[in-house]
Amino acid sequence: MRIVISEFISLDGVVQAPGGAEEDTEGGFAHGGWTHPFFDPEVVGGAFDEALAKADGLLFGRRTWQAMAGAWPERAGDPFADRMNALPKYVVSQTLGDDELTWNNTTRIPGEEAVARIRRLRGAEGGDLVVMGSPTLVRTLLSEGLVDELRLVIMPVLLGGGKSIFPTDGGLHALELVSTVTSDAGVQVCTYRPATEG
Q1: How does DSSP classify residue 39?
Q2: Measured between alpha carbons, how far is 65 from 71 in angstroms, rounded to an integer?
Q3: What's the start-to-end Cα distance of the chain, in Å?
Q4: pLDDT tens column, 89-142
Q5: Which of 34, 52, 126, 137 could connect to 61 by a Cys-Cys bridge, CB 3.0–4.6 Å?
Q6: pLDDT tens for residues 41-80?
């Protein structure tokens, strides 16, 4: 499977709380829902539709999984929601109990086993394993060289601080721009893959 990261991101690299005011206020973040003025169904919605169409599974950190598990099951009947709900899901968590995995088709990956288990998933046959949100998990995946594609939906806004997906471990990660699409609102959907050496 390929590991594909699909993120809403601001020009200053923030991914925190793109969907709503109360989604994630950790650190005093006050700009939740910052993507809404720039969303359009064709370019922005299309980027996520395309990612989900190629997905054979979804991978989340605990906080993002909990937010998604609280939202998508009640949206049944919408084709995107039905696909989200039907796909196998993996959540990396030290604290969630198996009895709390109420979103159907969810498997918990204990935090201390995350890198090894995700490496095995990546080595398995199948389509894409898509990661949305989950900044702590994405930083780890990037640091470990476990990302096959990075799809950034870059919104023309500066947020002045918040959670980022980019590692701060001093590692160099060269990327190759595979495609880019720009919406009328100035959103750029940029798809990157690890650059091949030489």
Answers
A1: -
A2: 10
A3: 25
A4: 999 999 999 899 999 999 999 999 999 999 999 999 999 999 999 999 999 999
A5: 137
A6: 999 999 999 999 999 999 999 999 999 999 899 998 888 8
User: What's the sign of the alpha-carbon dihedral 102, 97, 131, 22?
Assistant: positive
> Are the beta carbons of 117 and 57 closer than 8 angstroms?
no
Host H or E run for residue 109? strand 106-109
Structure token pair of residue 105: 């088709």
Tokens of 94: 């030290």
Rounded alpha-carbon distances, angstroms, from residue 30 to 39, 63, 116, 151, 159: 19, 17, 36, 25, 9
- Residues near 95 by Cβ (< 8 Å), separated by ≥ 6? 62
Q: What is the pTM of this model?
A: 0.94
The answer to whether residues 29 and 10 touch, using CB atoms and an 8 Å cutoff, is: no
